[in-house]
């Protein structure tokens, strides 16, 4: 228990360090969204808009030194509006959308999680049985077919597959598979028909985003399982008279899980950053395209928030994977070699 | 009465990627109820294949291409060889009718499941027992195989147990359904002699209780002489000899069993008698310039101690401190062999690592004297340390893990010379000479380690150690990973090299017979301390210390006239508190070494001093 608390504490410190890095990197290119904007407006002679932009600069303390700006953003120092930063739950203002970041990101954030968790579940549901089949039927026709398909899956870029599906779905079925719900629901509150539409629209993005991961997972799982199948304790289980599938699931499969659990920490941030291209092609309302735009236009609070969110996901993912490993593997739990 | 298991004309073929070959050529054997049949042979003789065929757990590449395996299930005989290997009939026989235990108890148990779960499992599969029933029966099984606390054992993981307890857990697992036949594949080879004796005693006792038959696969004729009723000798997939133990072992008619008997070190060997390898190898050793004769020891270990701090088990507990070595002193005279014996965990390997300067002692010194006066090796630095590295070399236990599979033999042999700046042409010539010294062809220099057998690999390991013309070799269990048929070759080679090159050996082993064959002086270690130190002849003639006696008493002798006294092996032998006076040591008491005859030291407790006071 103490160890978990200590972990959480180091996580907080890590997060703080990351926030400084994120802020520094965002600030690295010369200028920011507002100064660029003001220059643009001045050249067009729109004095009123310039005045509004300058008001925003003062309001968000962008005229202060960079270190102060950072502390205000994090919420460690009172800004023009008092303590109001990430720590206080104020995620800042998106200059590009001219709305609070929380409003812009709101739906996108959890839709991103939904899409990518669906892809994750798909990957495991499909990859594990295939990998088990492939490992137990090594050097058979079935194994060869699965292996070839796996390589094809690895080699096809997700966005290309998305384009192809988009095209043929339209030609053959007259379907528009872009987006995560029917266009008519945009901006509507989440009621039952909208959720149904979401579920129906999830299939294609799940398949597209999950395909590469499925292929990779089949390869790794198969290799891990083959190692474990040769271990003496697998033979022991057979010698006890266990039915083959039950023995396989209880011993070698369980042993081969560790590297995948250790991977959870990498998977969670991948949820956000991994599917940017696919999201663009399929016009999915997820965080990926927003982040890309924010970085391009130096929309600093927006970019900063999304990056911090990814960092938090990484750390939470690592904590989860460590806790699951401790729960799953007595050798780690008891500090054995 | 019909035999329990009758193997008739069994033929097993290996196909697959390699060249197809026949592992068993028409083997016929009978296993009788209530008796132990020992299946003896060197590696590759087909003994393990026989066991796997009986349980139908042969590797994928192997097929039974002929013959029958008739097993009496109680409702008539079933031909196991004709059943589908993973079908319900075969699964019903496995575990319930025939059970198996293996050589390496650590890797045969899953580290992720408690042994209670793994032992009770057979019951849940075959008898459809509930978890609670299975636990209750598993607890009984743990009690029967001698677990000190059966209730706790249910919730224990394999890595929390010693090797001996792991093997007991394996036995509990095999026997929980009271099978009619137990197949034991080298069940004690990975264990210390004392633990081996306890496991053998346990198997014998369980056989008396349940009347099961045991098929014991082993290469150790000492084990055969002590527990087998019948013996079958396999050679290259053929039965060369079979019959009741006394008939076979008293009159080994077949040359092969006779050769096996003479290929392993025994205690009753005449002084100076050499082992006779089954397949002699020829080594050409150029006698080197003899080292300068010095009177003082070439290597002196003076009062070294070493403790290790272990991370505590659960989260947040205080770390545990383990005393691996306490105040150990040893002298190695030039040109002689010092043997260090003890059970696993006695600290002997830690001592050898401190001599190699792989570990730094907490206190005490290791002094090396090459004729220029003793110097503390842990104070050496720079060029002096470099020179020491050259003078002391190491031969590893496992010839499979200690040679880089991606280097040719030439690279392996010349790398040490390259590091120590020996010219290219000299290196080539030296590599060829080294190969001749260890009895290998110079033509094999371009090959990779996988092309060699275990014994040949160990020769390469020895050649590598000799590459820099060292003065001292540290040999850590040099033959315990090798097949019986090649142990004699390696031991004889080491002796010849010592005679020709004037080398000094520090040999570490748990095998008393090997130490007896090799060493001039022997030190016995127990729990990090030396409890006895003497010239070889004196130690074996008069083993006064209770620990030394226990070690000696546990070695199974291949001659039928010295059976093991199983009742004398209790497991208390390594606990200093239980040693009789004057050897008893109170907890944390160091005791002191007493010279009982010239050169023969024994550790005694302070009881005499206490009584006097």
From TrEMBL, chain A:
PROSITE patterns: ABC_TM1
Superkingdom of the source species: Bacteria
Membrane-spanning residues: 108-132, 144-169, 198-218, 260-282, 302-328
Pfam families: BPD_transp_1 (PF00528), BPD_transp_1_N (PF19300)
Keyword Heme: no
Membrane topology: Multi-pass membrane protein
SUPFAM superfamilies xref list: MetI-like
Protein name from the UniProt record: Inner membrane ABC transporter permease protein YejB
Principal location: membrane
Organism: Methylobacterium cerastii
UniProt family annotation: Belongs to the binding-protein-dependent transport system permease family.
Domain ABC transmembrane type-1 positions: 109-324
Subcellular location: Cell membrane
Automatic annotation (TrEMBL), chain B:
Keyword Nucleotide-binding: yes
Keywords, ordered alphabetically: ATP-binding, Nucleotide-binding, Transport
Record membrane topology: Peripheral membrane protein
Pfam family, one: ABC_tran
Major site of localization recorded for this protein: membrane
PROSITE patterns in UniProt: ABC_TRANSPORTER_1, ABC_TRANSPORTER_2
UniProt-recorded Gene Ontology molecular function terms: ATP binding
Chloroplast recorded as keyword: no
Protein family: Belongs to the ABC transporter superfamily.
NCBIfam families referenced in this protein's UniProt entry, alphabetically: PRK11308.1
PANTHER family xrefs: D,D-DIPEPTIDE TRANSPORT ATP-BINDING PROTEIN DDPF-RELATED, TRANSPORT ATP-BINDING PROTEIN
Protein name, as recorded: Glutathione import ATP-binding protein GsiA
Organism encoding this protein: Methylobacterium cerastii
Underlying gene: gsiA_2
């Amino acid at each position: 228990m103490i160890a978990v608390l200590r972990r959480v504490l180091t996580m907080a410190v890590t997060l703080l360090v990351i926030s400084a890095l994120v802020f520094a990197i965002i600030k690295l290119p010369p200028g920011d969204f507002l100064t660029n904007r003001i220059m643009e407006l001045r050249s067009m002679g729109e004095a009123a808009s310039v005045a509004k932009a300058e008001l925003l600069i003062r309001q968000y303390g962008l005229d202060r030194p960079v270190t102060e700006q950072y502390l205000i953003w994090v919420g460690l120092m009172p800004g023009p509006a008092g303590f109001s930063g990430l720590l206080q739950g104020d995620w800042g203002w998106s200059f590009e959308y001219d709305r609070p970041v929380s409003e812009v990101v709101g739906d996108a954030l959890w839709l991103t999680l939904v899409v990518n968790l669906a892809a994750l579940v798909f990957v495991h549901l499909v990859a594990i049985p295939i990998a088990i089949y492939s490992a137990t039927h090594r050097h058979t026709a079935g194994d060869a077919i699965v292996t070839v398909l796996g390589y094809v899956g690895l080699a096809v870029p997700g966005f290309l597959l998305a384009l192809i599906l988009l095209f043929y779905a339209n030609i053959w079925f007259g379907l528009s598979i872009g987006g995560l719900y029917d266009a008519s629901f945009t901006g509507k509150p989440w009621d039952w028909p909208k959720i149904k539409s979401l579920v129906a629209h999830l299939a294609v993005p799940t398949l597209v985003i999950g395909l590469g991961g499925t292929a990779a997972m089949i390869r790794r799982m198969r290799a891990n399982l083959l190692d474990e199948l040769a271990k003496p304790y697998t033979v022991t289980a057979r010698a006890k008279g266990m039915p083959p599938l039950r023995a396989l699931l209880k011993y070698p499969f369980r042993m081969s899980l560790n590297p995948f659990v250790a991977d959870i920490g990498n998977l969670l941030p991948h949820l956000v950053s991994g599917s940017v291209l696919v999201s663009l092609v399929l016009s999915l309302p997820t965080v990926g395209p927003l982040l890309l735009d924010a970085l391009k236009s130096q929309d600093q609070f927006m970019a900063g928030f999304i990056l911090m969110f990814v960092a938090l996901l990484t750390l939470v993912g690592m904590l989860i994977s460590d806790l699951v490993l401790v729960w799953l593997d007595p050798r780690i739990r008891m500090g054995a070699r | 009465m019909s035999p329990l298991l009758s193997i008739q004309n069994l033929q097993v073929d290996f196909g697959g990627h390699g060249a197809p070959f026949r592992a068993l050529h028409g083997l016929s054997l009978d296993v009788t109820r209530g008796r132990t049949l020992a299946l003896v042979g060197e590696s590759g003789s087909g003994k393990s294949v026989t066991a796997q065929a009986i349980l139908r757990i042969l590797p994928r590449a192997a097929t039974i291409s002929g013959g029958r395996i008739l097993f009496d299930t109680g409702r008539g005989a079933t031909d196991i060889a004709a059943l589908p290997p993973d079908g319900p009939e075969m699964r019903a026989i496995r575990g319930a009718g025939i059970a198996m235990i293996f050589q390496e108890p650590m890797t045969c148990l899953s580290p992720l499941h408690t042994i209670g779960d793994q032992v009770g499992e057979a019951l849940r599969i075959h008898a459809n027992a509930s978890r609670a029933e299975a636990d209750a029966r598993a607890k009984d099984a743990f009690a029967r195989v001698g677990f000190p606390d059966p209730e706790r054992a249910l919730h224990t993981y394999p890595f929390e147990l010693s090797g001996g307890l792991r093997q007991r857990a394996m036995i509990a697992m095999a026997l929980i359904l009271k099978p009619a036949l137990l197949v034991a594949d080298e069940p004690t080879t990975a264990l210390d002699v004392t633990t081996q004796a306890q496991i053998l005693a346990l198997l014998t006792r369980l056989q008396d209780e349940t009347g099961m038959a045991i098929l014991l696969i082993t290469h150790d004729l000492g084990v055969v002489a002590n527990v087998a009723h019948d013996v079958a000798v396999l050679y290259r997939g053929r039965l060369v000899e079979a019959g009741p133990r006394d008939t076979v072992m008293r009159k080994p008619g077949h040359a092969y069993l006779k050769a096996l008997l003479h290929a392993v070190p025994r205690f009753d060997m005449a002084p100076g008698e050499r082992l006779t390898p089954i397949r002699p190898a020829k080594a050409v050793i150029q006698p080197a310039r003899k080292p300068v004769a010095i009177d003082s020891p070439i290597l002196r270990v003076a009062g070294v101690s070493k403790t290790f701090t272990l991370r505590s088990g659960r989260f947040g507990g205080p770390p545990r401190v383990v005393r691996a070595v306490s105040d150990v002193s040893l002298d190695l005279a030039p040109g002689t062999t010092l043997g260090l014996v003890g059970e696993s965990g006695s600290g002997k390997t830690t001592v050898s690592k401190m001599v190699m300067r792989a570990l730094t002692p907490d206190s005490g010194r290791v002094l090396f004297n090459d004729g220029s006066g003793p110097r503390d090796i842990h104070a050496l630095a720079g060029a002096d340390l470099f020179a020491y590295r050259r003078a002391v070399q190491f031969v590893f236990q496992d010839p499979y893990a200690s040679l880089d599979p991606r280097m040719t033999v030439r690279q392996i042999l010349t790398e040490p010379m390259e590091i120590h700046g020996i010219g290219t042409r000299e290196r080539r010539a030296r590599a060829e000479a080294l190969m001749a010294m260890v009895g290998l062809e110079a033509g094999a220099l371009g090959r990779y380690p996988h092309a060699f057998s275990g014994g040949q690999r160990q020769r390469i390991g020895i050649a590598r150690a000799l590459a820099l013309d060292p003065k001292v070799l540290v040999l850590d269990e040099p033959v315990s990973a090798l097949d019986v048929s090649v142990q004699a070759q390696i031991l004889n080679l080491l002796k010849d090299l010592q005679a020709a090159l004037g080398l000094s050996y520090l040999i570490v082993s748990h095998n008393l017979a090997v130490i007896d064959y090799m060493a001039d002086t022997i030190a016995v270690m127990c729990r990090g301390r030396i409890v006895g130190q003497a010239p070889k002849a004196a130690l074996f003639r008069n083993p006064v210390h209770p620990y030394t006696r226990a070690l000696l008493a546990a070695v199974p002798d291949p001659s039928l006239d010295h059976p093991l006294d199983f009742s004398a092996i209790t497991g208390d032998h390594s606990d200093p508190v239980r040693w009789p006076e004057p050897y008893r040591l109170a907890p944390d008491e160091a005791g002191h070494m007493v010279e009982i005859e010239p050169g023969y030291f024994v550790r005694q407790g302070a009881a005499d001093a206490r009584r006097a006071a």
